[in-house]
Design goal:
By secondary structure, the chain is mainly α. The chain has helices at about 5-15, 25-35, 40-50, 50-60. α1 (about 5-15) packs across α2 (about 25-35).
Length: about 70
């Protein structure tokens, strides 16, 4: 399970448009620069595999992004 804050941290990198989200090392590097919420590779894999479910659960991601809500 991944918390809403972790999912939002992932979405923040995603919506920055700065990297291909399949480049996990770069996603982790950008995550450290952009957020206080640190992600692991295991969490990235979980988010990528369960993105639709997490987006529905937390009501964020996709068109409904609200990145600033956890700051």
């Amino acid at each position: 399970m991944v918390s809403e804050k972790k999912f939002l941290a992932y979405c923040e990198v995603q919506y920055s448009g700065k990297t291909n989200m399949f480049d996990l090392d770069e996603v982790l590097r950008l995550n450290k620069k952009m957020s206080e919420i640190e992600l692991t590779k295991k969490e990235l894999h979980y988010i990528m595999k369960n993105y639709s479910k997490l987006r529905e659960k937390y009501g964020v991601g996709g068109v409904n992004i609200r990145i600033q809500s956890f700051r």
